[in-house]
Amino acid sequence: MTGRQTMAEATVTVRGLAKTFILHLQGGIRLPVLQGVDLDVQAGECVALNGPSGVGKSTLLRCLYGNYRADAGHITLRDEGIVVDMATAEPRHILAVRRRSLGYVSQFLRVVPRVPAIDVVAEPLRALGVSEEAARERARALLQRLHIPERLWALPPATFSGGEQQRINIARGFAHSFPIMLLDEPTAALDADNQGAVIDLIRDARERGTAMVGIFHDPAVRQALATRLFDMKPP
Amino acid sequence: MIEAAPLLSVSGLGHDYDGIIACRHIAFDLWPGEVLGVVGESGSGKTTLLNALSARLIPTTGTVRYRTREQGMVEVYRLSEAERRMLMRTDWGFVHQNPREGLRMSVSAGANVGERLMAVGARHYGEIRAEAVRWLEQVEMDTGRIDDSPRTFSGGMLQRLQIARNLVTKPRLVFMDEPTGGLDVSVQARLLDLLRGLVGDLGLSAIIVTHDLAVARMLSHRLLVMWRGEVVETGLTDQVLDDPQHPYSQLLVSSVLTP
Amino acid sequence: MTDESDTAGENGYNFAYLDEQTKRMIRRAILKAVAVPGYQVPFGSREMPLPYGWGTGGIQVTAALIGPDDVLKVIDQGADDTTNAVSIRRFFERTAAIATTTRTVEATIIQTRHRIPETPLAPGQILVYQVPQPEPLRRLVASEVETRTMHALEEYGVMHVRLYEDIARHGRIATAYDYPVKVNGRYVMAPSPIPKFDNPKMDRNPALQLFGAGREKRIYAVPPHTSVKSLDFDDHPFEIERWNESCALCGATETFLDEVLTDDAGGRLFVCSDSDYCHERRVVEDD
């Protein structure tokens, strides 16, 4: 973190980010989680958030995605060449950034029931206006690469095993080549074989220049993916 | 892709019934293609708000401005009654919780879908019918039932029919009052899929009143949380549901298991 | 009291039964109806000495118009000799002591239930229709407030919903009576339960056409030479009934025919529904 120059070049720039939860239903308890967080992420970097449980890794990731509201500070990134501050942007701008520039793979698949796996994966591309055929083609390639048996493609993922669901989730997250990806334990429920396939997929994206921020508890996965650790301490 | 001007712009909107305040100080903009969820418990004023927005009830105070295709931004309650009613049956739609309120139960499914076309001057039976078939397909209904009376339809089918009836004039703004409210859970899920698909494919703007946070999460981009007639919190849907700020929002979110 | 009241019959009725105050009220309603063709004007319908459904609306309109020099014809389903026609004719004979006729050409006022005479009407004649339901939108819209608004704003799409329904069910517009029309390009109007065969006769008719609904308390009008267009679809245009048969009595081929059973063995024949027209034709033939 070396001042202005880096800030202009970085793909994601976080400055002075603060987040406190106020639990009104518990008598207004204040839980400060983040304070004065500064972070820069460059294209092709995979920054692993590091620190003990409860230090706010997930909270930071969710703030970056605009899922949690920042109390103070700025989260700037580029969306089609225009700088957006996720800490203050209008909801519709945040949605546009998420559609085009900012991907997120959570621990759990959360999708509309009844939609077949292949369409769950293709949907982010469809939302960008990619034709159904091209989107499905891309989805098929990803499902194949992540070892999802072809007989499952036409079925809704609700009944799939945890590992299968997680790979569907990853395929969906990587269907569009987002310039920025946020990864929250993307390999937690996977066996060694499938873990390898996922790591390959993520590494390819990183080498193409995707800027990544992730939480990886498994040291081997972290070792394989992270280019740098970002140490976090309780405020 | 982000539009520069809102489709609907609401300011200082309020309504009271003989001095009893139902809603007040409502202000927001709705953007083209945006789906706004209005959540809150019953009695929070959300249905009154929906009616006051959709010209079904003339609000006591405030303005509702809408960007029409021809005249640009107009004040809805300054339009003549004729213009307002025309707007309501062409560029707007209204989906009632109880489909029987939005349908003409005494005529066939096809006539229900075709009515809005006839209201704007369609006078070719064959073309009206072809449009009705197309819209029954869009809402995933068996087109073989086009001549059947809605009285023979299930709740889920009635709701689909009501949606088709509204969409046939290609409205840009659709108001929905608990659109999945009276339905079985399995039927609800399918209808939600359908609504989500239609809203996305047609680029509709919508304002959806619901007490069901799962419905709000699945359909809406942005939420208004209403409490005692006022908006206490507004923001991106997942932000409001995952990181609610106002005490009432926190209570609302905590009262359901998985919103 | 006007001088008309002096002619009240020996049994003490006012001329044509209604008091002069009521007649003036009804005439005002008629004038308004004539001024706004097809628009339903509310009026203070009176209790009449016969039940609703027997033509109380038409009788009040006739009573408000008729003078000592008028010649009245009354038809029911085209016939002068049916119970309803006979009793209304007798009603005016007794209460107004006016002349009556069965001949269309002689009449100055023709009160009718369910038909328009086949003989073309002439300028100066008045046709008074008995109307059970004046509101053409009523079958689909129950609320009076809403139907009034729809008329005011010319929102008539729902009328085509009715016709759509007909075609969807029967493959054609099956509505045969009380077929909705648009008057003077503005108001949609119920022509009373005349057969649609008669609808074209309303269009630009030189006679004044008045409609009275007693129970529903409405009067409306089609002034002479006013356009009356039957609603339809481009691909299902309005059509009138045609018969393969001709009238068994007078041989007419262009009239509205009634089917009459002649015996218990299924024998049947078709005759003109307009008894006067049929009779006139036969008289001419006999000459």
Structure commentary:
- The complex is a heterotrimer of chains A (235), B (259) and C (287).
- Chain A is of the alpha/beta class and 235 residues long.
- Chain A is built from eight helices and nine strands.
- Chain A has a five-stranded parallel beta sheet with strand order 6-7-8-3-9, sandwiched between helices. Chain A has a four-stranded antiparallel beta sheet with strand order 2-1-4-5.
- Chain B is α/β, with parallel strands linked by helices and 259 residues long.
- Chain B has helices at residues 46-53, 81-90, 99-102, 109-119, 125-138, 155-167, 185-202, 213-219, 237-242, 247-254, and strands at residues 8-17, 20-30, 35-39, 61-68, 72-75, 92-95, 173-177, 205-210, 222-227, 230-236.
- Chain B folds into two domains: 35-73 and 172-259, Rossmann fold (3-Layer(aba) Sandwich), CATH 3.40.50.300; 103-169, no CATH class.
- With 287 residues, chain C is of the alpha/beta class.
- Chain C is built from seven helices and twelve strands.
- Chain B binds chain C through residues 81-82, 85, 104, 106-108, 110-111, 114-116, 118-121, 123-126, 128-129, 146-147, and chain C through 140, 149, 153, 155, 157-158, 160-162, 164-165, 167-169, 232-236.
Q: Could you name the key traits of this structure?
A:
heterotrimer; A: 235 residues; alpha/beta; Rossmann fold; 5-stranded parallel sheet; 4-stranded antiparallel sheet; 9 strands; globular; disordered N terminus; B: 259 residues; 2 domains; 6-stranded mixed sheet; 38% helix
Helix content of chain C: 25-40%
Structural class of chain C: alpha/beta
Strand content of chain C: 15-25%
Shape summary of chain B:
globular
- Would you identify the CATH architecture of the largest domain in chain B? 3-Layer(aba) Sandwich
Write the layout of secondary structure elements.
The complex is a heterotrimer of chains A (235), B (259) and C (287).
Chain A: H1 4-9, E1 12-23, E2 29-41, E3 46-50, H2 57-65, E4 72-79, E5 82-85, H3 91-100, E6 102-105, H4 117-127, H5 132-145, H6 162-175, E7 180-184, H7 192-207, E8 211-215, H8 219-225, E9 228-231
Parallel strand pairs in A: 3-8, 3-9, 6-7, 7-8
Antiparallel strand pairs in A: 1-2, 1-4, 4-5
Helix pairs in contact in A: 4-5, 4-6, 5-6
Chain B: E1 8-17, E2 20-30, E3 35-39, H1 46-53, E4 61-68, E5 72-75, H2 81-90, E6 92-95, H3 99-102, H4 109-119, H5 125-138, H6 155-167, E7 173-177, H7 185-202, E8 205-210, H8 213-219, E9 222-227, E10 230-236, H9 237-242, H10 247-254
Parallel strand pairs in B: 3-8, 3-9, 6-7, 7-8
Antiparallel strand pairs in B: 1-2, 1-4, 4-5, 9-10
Chain C: H1 20-35, E1 41-42, H2 56-65, E2 71-76, H3 83-96, E3 99-100, E4 109-113, E5 126-130, H4 144-152, H5 157-170, E6 181-183, E7 187-189, H6 199-202, E8 208-213, E9 218-222, E10 228-230, E11 257-261, E12 268-272, H7 275-286
Parallel strand pairs in C: 2-3, 2-4, 4-5, 5-8
Antiparallel strand pairs in C: 1-9, 6-7, 6-10, 8-9, 11-12
Helix pairs in contact in C: 1-2
